[in-house]
Amino acid sequence: MRPVNEGVVVGVDIGGTKVLAGVVDDEGRVSHTALRTTPGRRVVTSRVEDALVEAIVEAAGGESLVGVGVAAAGFVDSAGERVMFAPHLPWQGEPLKDLLEGRLGCPVGLDNDANCAARAEARYGAARGAGSALMVTMGTGIGGAVLLDGRVVRGANGMAGEFGHMQVVPDGQPCECGRRGCWEQYSSGNALVRNARALMVEQPSVLNDMTDGNPEQITGPMVTSAAEQGDLVAHRAFASVGHWLGVGVANLVAALDPEVVVIGGGVSSAGDRLLEPARDALRRTLVGAEHRRIPGVVAAELGPRAGMIGAALLVS
């Protein structure tokens, strides 16, 4: 345990749309959060770092910083020092650890956001006690992590678990990574919105009222709200995303045979609306399903704060 008044540890989760920072204690409890909008992919990198620092300083609330852990939506090198590539952010080989240590004056830990979420779920959440687990995080895109013997497998380059950019449809939807047919183009927050926009023009929907009939105004929270009202378009959009989630999970289970698959990220807040079609697709598409114990597909227990909590573990 850290001595009283020694200072605080701040965890930061930076994704395609937002920066979330918060003080995290030794029990994984979060307080004093701060939120910023991610500047985007087509900006100078210093603007992203500015948003990070602003959120960290606000979350710390004047307390001294013991350390800062950063969960980044991108490829982090094996040394945990650089973001080598981020499909939704402008970083390419960005020495983020050194840059933030220079600006904040404290130790900084850095890893992929899904790896951080997996650490948090293994310590405090849905993967507690599991010898092997898969983490799939669904937000703007898809991230992932592999847990073996309770530890995150980072791989030779630090880039294991980038499930979202597995190709599931040859010559399919274009992806921000520059390729086509990536899994996250069919099962993610972006995919949910795209599905709803396409379906909205085919049949009546409360989404028409929410957007004054303009499909381009649809957002993920709108689709969730519409689904809660029983809207058929929203339910169909979730069913498609859930189906593709199960197809991708079946491929991962065939390769890695985990005890449990934990689904996290903002989209996972939809619960069984997303997970039931995923479980069904997993049962129908998993090789040898009738001869094996199919792993549970469960929602992350720590919700959208898992990445932030796991990031703090890097420096706790």
Structure overview:
- With 316 residues, the chain is an alpha/beta fold.
- It has two domains: 8-118 and 305-313, Nucleotidyltransferase, domain 5 (2-Layer Sandwich), CATH 3.30.420.40; 129-300, ATPase, nucleotide binding domain (Nucleotidyltransferase, domain 5, 2-Layer Sandwich), CATH 3.30.420.
- Helix content is 35%, strand content 21%.
- It is built from nine helices and twelve strands.
- It has helices spanning 45-60, 96-104, 113-124, 189-200, 206-211, 220-228, 232-256, 272-285, 306-313; strands at residues 8-14, 18-24, 30-37, 65-72, 75-76, 83-85, 108-112, 132-138, 142-148, 151-152, 260-264, 296-299.
- Strands 3-2-1-4-7 form a five-stranded mixed β-sheet. Strands 10-9-8-11-12 form a five-stranded mixed β-sheet, with helices on both faces.
- α3 (113-124) packs across α9 and α7 (232-256) crosses α8 (272-285).
- The longest helix is centred in the C-terminal third of the chain and has 25 residues, at 232-256.
- The chain is globular, with a radius of gyration of 19 Å.
- The mean pLDDT is 92.
